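Need a sequence for this fold. Nothing fancy.
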């Protein structure tokens, strides 16, 4: 995705929003979309006022996307890629090389964003197609050659290539008004009598959380199952129960996420691909991810 193409002339603000999703930095997104940092900063404030939601928040010396910002920039990226494709077709141009990258929703913004943005800085002509899916759907897609690579969990069977990327904490989500919301950590035994909301059994997160309960010698009182972490976050915010969720996956302004006191409240995730896939573009992406691991150990770990 190149936000300085002819498509950007048609939808400049969409290009800027898409660039912000790739770069995760106002300065770099401005350079990527061919505008100035002050201009993009003013645009972000204008979008926030129009939408009534925060897109970015202070983080260290810069900013980071809010969950709402991650959602909207990802949608902008998809829409901008469609516009780029339409422009190329209208001009009769051959499409550029494409990589289809799938990911679990709980791993998308923090990990896939960094992987893709840093890769595209070195390979600006590549079109990245994104897909969100469950672990099973991701692996089926790789088998069917509809998906090239995936950021997923757990480690798949041996017919797939695998590169460990990081570990993600499992945290306790509760309403912001809950009696324990101010704690630094909570043990499962302290909340074992409360109602819990959970992803259904198709999801790896559910397997991990079931194992945590079993290791603690407890059985949770699950009152609702869902197939979307955002649905769970909405219900938790309404006071319908608590939930065990991957860190940084379903933030909500009316919930609090607390670390678990239990050891091992984490899951491994990594990059998967068809082991027999020897295409140069796929190998280039894998090599890029491996170089990130070597240069910045722990770069992809996700904690509160």
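Here you go.
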């Amino acid at each position: 995705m190149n936000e300085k193409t002819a498509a950007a002339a048609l939808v400049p603000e969409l290009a800027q929003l898409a660039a912000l999703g790739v770069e995760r930095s106002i300065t770099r997104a401005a350079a990527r979309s061919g505008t100035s940092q002050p201009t993009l900063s003013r645009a972000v404030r204008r979008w926030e006022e129009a939408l009534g939601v925060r897109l970015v928040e202070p983080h260290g010396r810069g900013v980071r996307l809010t969950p709402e910002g991650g959602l909207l920039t990802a949608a902008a990226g998809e829409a901008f890629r469609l516009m780029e494709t339409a422009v190329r077709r209208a001009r009769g141009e051959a499409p550029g090389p494409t990589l289809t990258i799938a990911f679990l929703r709980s791993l998308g913004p923090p990990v896939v964003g960094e992987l893709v943005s840093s890769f595209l800085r070195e390979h600006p002509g590549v079109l990245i197609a994104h897909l969100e899916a469950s672990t099973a759907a991701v692996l089926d897609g790789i088998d069917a050659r509809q998906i090239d690579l995936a950021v997923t969990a757990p480690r798949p069977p041996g017919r797939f290539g695998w590169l460990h990327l990081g570990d993600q904490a499992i945290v306790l989500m509760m309403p912001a008004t809950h009696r324990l919301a101010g704690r630094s950590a909570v043990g499962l035994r302290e909340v074992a009598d409360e109602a819990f909301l959970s992803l259904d059994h198709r999801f790896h997160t559910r397997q991990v959380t079931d194992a945590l309960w079993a290791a603690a010698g407890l059985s949770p009182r699950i009152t609702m199952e869902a197939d979307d972490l955002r649905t769970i976050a909405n219900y938790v915010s309404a006071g319908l129960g608590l939930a065990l969720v991957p860190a940084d996956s379903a933030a909500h302004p009316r919930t609090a996420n607390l670390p678990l006191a239990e050891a091992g409240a984490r899951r491994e995730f990594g990059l998967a691909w068809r082991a027999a896939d020897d295409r140069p573009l796929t190998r280039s992406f894998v090599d890029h991810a491996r170089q990130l691991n070597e240069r910045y150990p722990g770069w992809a770990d996700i904690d509160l």
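For context: The two ends are 30 Å apart (CA to CA).
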